[in-house]
Amino acid sequence: MFAKAFRVKSNTAIKGSDRRKLRADVMAAFPTLGTDQVSVLVPGKEELNIVKLYAHRGDAVTVYVSGGNPILFEVEKNLYPTVYTLWSYPDLLPAFTTWPPVLEKLVGGADLMLPGLVVPPAGLPQVQKGDLCAIALLGNRAPVAVGVAAMSTAEMLTSGLKGRGFSVLHTYQDHLWRSGDKSSPPSLAPLALDPPDLSEEKESVQADPALQGDLRRLTLEGEEENGEVQRMCEEKSLSEASEDPSVRGLNPHPTDSKTLQEQMDELVQRCFLHALKCQVRKADLPLLTSTFLGSHMLSCCPEGRQLDIKKSSYKKLSKFLQHMQQEQIIQVKELSKGVESIVAVDWKHPRKGSILEGGEVRMIIINYVKRNDLVDADNKNLVKLDPILCDCILEKNEQHTVMKLPWDSLLTRSKLKIMYIRSLQTTAHEPDLTRYLYFLEYSHTHLFICLEKLQPVYQVTFPGQEPIVKKGRICPIDITLAQRASNKKVTVVRNLEAYGLDPCSVAAILQQRCQASATVMPAPGAKDSLQVQIQGNQVHHLSRLLLEEYQLPRKHIQGLEKAPKPGKKK
C-alpha cells in the first residue's frame, strides 16, 4: 500500500474526544494489550496528530502519528499497527517468518507467497483467513511487515505451502516508514517454543504424510502476483540495535586497529559499490540520490551492521557522492532545484571489479561447507545440502529429493564449472556465470552472492605489460590451408589479435623467413579482425614462430597438424 509515495490531504492535532475514542478502538482491535500499554501507545498529553492521505492507488488512509513516528493507520475502519509499534510490542500479532532476501520484494509491493515462509520447529501460528499478521525475518523476531492472511493455517498446510499467503499492507523501508524517524528494527531473539503435538495436527489437517519433511526444505521459490519470486543478488540487512547507538552494528573485531569512523567509511564505500554493481542498471538513470541510498545502498548492508553516513567522515550523503564523483565513478547533477540525481555511472571503473579464478571459487564452497558443519558425520565423502547449497547446486526437480551429494559431485556440477569470474572488491561479490545464489564470507559477515549474470573472461599477460582482460572465451589461433587461382596453395592465419600479436608484424616476419608473398586482409565474418595469408604451405614456419619464439601454448593453436610431411614439396 505504501510502496510508492502517497499524497497528504491534511495533518491536524487530535482532539481530546478523538484521543479517547482511539484508545477504545485500539483496545477493541488488539485485546492482548493491557490498559497501561494502550496508555503508552496513545499518550494522554503528548502531541498526537491525525494525518489523512491518499495512497498511490487512491486508497483513503488515516495515519496516527506520535512522537514523529506513525504508530497506527486506518483503512476502511480497520485499524493496523505500523512496524514502529510492533517493535515495541512484537507479540501483538501472530508472526510468520520469511527469508531475509524476500524483504526487498515486499518493500517493492509484492505479497508474501507461501513458498517463502520459514517453518519453525513449533509449526506455523494458527490463524484464520482475514486475520492480521506480522512478518519477521529469519533470526530476528522484530516484525518488518504487516499483512492480512489470505487463508487459514490449515489451508496453508493442505495446499503444500503454495500460492499467496498474505496480502502485505505496510513494510519496513516503505514510504510510511520513511515518514517517521527511519530507525532500524531492534534485534530480538526468536522465542523458544515446544513443538506442537503432531497427533492433534493430524486430526485437524489431513495433509500428505511427506508434508512435514517437505516443509523443512522450503526455499525462496515463491511466486509474486505475476510470476515467481526471483532469487536475490544480495542478502537484505536488518541492523542490530545496541544500547549505544554510536557504535550499534559496527561490532569491531578485537584485532581490528581501525577506528569506528574508518570502519563506517569502509562500509559506506562497500555498500555504494555493491549497490552500483548488483542493483542499479543503466535504465534506472537518472536516479535520485535519496532513492539510491534508501532503496539500494541500505539493502546492501551486511546482516548485523548498520549503515549510517552520519557516523562516517563524510557526514552527509551529498559529500560522499561528491567524493565518488571526483573518483569518476559516478556523475551527479541537480536536475531540479535542491534535488540531486545520479545521471551517469562508469560501469568499467577499476574499483568495481577484479579477477577470481575458478579454484578460488571451489575453495569458497569447501570453506562454506566446513564452516557450517555440513560434512556428513557418518560418511565424510558426503555433504549435507542446506537451503543455500540447494539453490546453488540442485535443479528444481531435485530440491525435495536430493539431501546429500558426494564432494566430487558438489564441486564439478556444471553450474560451478568456471574458468574465471568477476568479483567486487567490496563487501559483496557479483560473479557473472549462472543464475543461482552463492554464499561468501567477508570480514566475519556472511553475504549472498548473485551469480545470475556471470560470464567467462580470459586474461592474456605479456612480459613487461599490463594483463589484458576480456569477456567471453578466447578463440584459438586458427591455421588453415586454401586453394587459390591456378591451384596454388596458401596458408591463412586468423585470431592473432586475441593473443596480442600484430598481424602486420607477423606477416612481415613470415614473408622474410619463407621468402614468399604475405598479405594482410580483413577476416571474413569477423568485425575489426585481420587475417594473414602466405603463399604456399607455411605451417611449419608458423609453428616455430608461435610455439618457440612467442611461446604460446600449443592448446591455443589449431591447424598445426597441417604442416607438410618430411620429404614432400610444400
UniProtKB/TrEMBL annotation:
<keyword id="KW-0648">Protein biosynthesis</keyword>
<feature type="compositionally biased region" description="Low complexity">
    <location>
        <begin position="183"/>
        <end position="196"/>
    </location>
</feature>
<dbReference type="InterPro" id="IPR048247">
    <property type="entry name" value="eIF2D_N"/>
</dbReference>
<dbReference type="Pfam" id="PF25304">
    <property type="entry name" value="WHD_eIF2D"/>
</dbReference>
<dbReference type="InterPro" id="IPR001950">
    <property type="entry name" value="SUI1"/>
</dbReference>
<dbReference type="InterPro" id="IPR041366">
    <property type="entry name" value="Pre-PUA"/>
</dbReference>
<protein>
    <recommendedName>
        <fullName>Eukaryotic translation initiation factor 2D</fullName>
    </recommendedName>
</protein>
<comment type="similarity">
    <text>Belongs to the eIF2D family.</text>
</comment>
<dbReference type="Pfam" id="PF01253">
    <property type="entry name" value="SUI1"/>
</dbReference>
<keyword id="KW-0963">Cytoplasm</keyword>
<dbReference type="InterPro" id="IPR039759">
    <property type="entry name" value="eIF2D_SUI1"/>
</dbReference>
<dbReference type="InterPro" id="IPR036877">
    <property type="entry name" value="SUI1_dom_sf"/>
</dbReference>
<dbReference type="GO" id="GO:0001731">
    <property type="term" value="P:formation of translation preinitiation complex"/>
</dbReference>
<dbReference type="Pfam" id="PF17832">
    <property type="entry name" value="Pre-PUA"/>
</dbReference>
<dbReference type="InterPro" id="IPR003121">
    <property type="entry name" value="SWIB_MDM2_domain"/>
</dbReference>
<keyword id="KW-0396">Initiation factor</keyword>
<dbReference type="InterPro" id="IPR015947">
    <property type="entry name" value="PUA-like_sf"/>
</dbReference>
<dbReference type="GO" id="GO:0003743">
    <property type="term" value="F:translation initiation factor activity"/>
</dbReference>
<dbReference type="Pfam" id="PF26292">
    <property type="entry name" value="PUA_elF2D"/>
</dbReference>
<dbReference type="InterPro" id="IPR057429">
    <property type="entry name" value="WH_eIF2D"/>
</dbReference>
<dbReference type="InterPro" id="IPR048248">
    <property type="entry name" value="PUA_eIF2d-like"/>
</dbReference>
<keyword id="KW-0007">Acetylation</keyword>
<feature type="domain" description="DM2">
    <location>
        <begin position="328"/>
        <end position="417"/>
    </location>
</feature>
<dbReference type="GO" id="GO:0003723">
    <property type="term" value="F:RNA binding"/>
</dbReference>
<dbReference type="Pfam" id="PF26291">
    <property type="entry name" value="SWIB_eIF2D"/>
</dbReference>
<keyword id="KW-0597">Phosphoprotein</keyword>
<dbReference type="InterPro" id="IPR058886">
    <property type="entry name" value="SWIB_eIF2D"/>
</dbReference>
<dbReference type="GO" id="GO:0005737">
    <property type="term" value="C:cytoplasm"/>
</dbReference>
<dbReference type="InterPro" id="IPR036885">
    <property type="entry name" value="SWIB_MDM2_dom_sf"/>
</dbReference>
<dbReference type="InterPro" id="IPR039757">
    <property type="entry name" value="EIF2D"/>
</dbReference>
<feature type="domain" description="SUI1">
    <location>
        <begin position="477"/>
        <end position="550"/>
    </location>
</feature>
<feature type="region of interest" description="Disordered">
    <location>
        <begin position="178"/>
        <end position="255"/>
    </location>
</feature>
<dbReference type="InterPro" id="IPR002478">
    <property type="entry name" value="PUA"/>
</dbReference>
<comment type="function">
    <text>Translation initiation factor that is able to deliver tRNA to the P-site of the eukaryotic ribosome in a GTP-independent manner. The binding of Met-tRNA(I) occurs after the AUG codon finds its position in the P-site of 40S ribosomes, the situation that takes place during initiation complex formation on some specific RNAs. Its activity in tRNA binding with 40S subunits does not require the presence of the aminoacyl moiety. Possesses the unique ability to deliver non-Met (elongator) tRNAs into the P-site of the 40S subunit.</text>
</comment>
